[in-house]
Request: fold
Amino acid sequence: MKRPIPLTMTVSLLILIVSLLVAETLTVKVQSTSLRNTPKFYAPAVQSLSAGEKVEKISAQGGWIQVRTSGGITGWVHSSAVEVPKFDLMATNKGLKTQASASEVALAGKGFNKQVEESYRAKHKDLSFAWVDRMLQIKIAAAQVEEFMKKGKLGEFGGGK
Reply:
């Protein structure tokens, strides 16, 4: 004889299924950002996220979004670093490009696309992105960011939001 499944188990299973179906997927829209253990810019980073990476939204709090990576790591990312994918292109022929390469994303982050850069380089033979590339390599410790915010009375340290 079969035993009926308890009501609480059925309801729990239904809630789980619904939550999985309505989970919002976000895409990292900046070159790189940090997944942090608390919703603060100076919080320790749990993992680095790269442009195009997909994360699942769990919750939101004051401009921060709690997310889960495809690897199951949970943390906080600022809302300015992610976006809801607007649409996916379906390739109907081999000529349609649906993704950008890492170098194209980097150029777009600098305000260029490949064609604009080539045209500009042709007119400016001595052009160099060396200083831009060097600036992108600068890493600022979370403790320095926190100290800067305290001294400047910014964010939670100055009453502003």
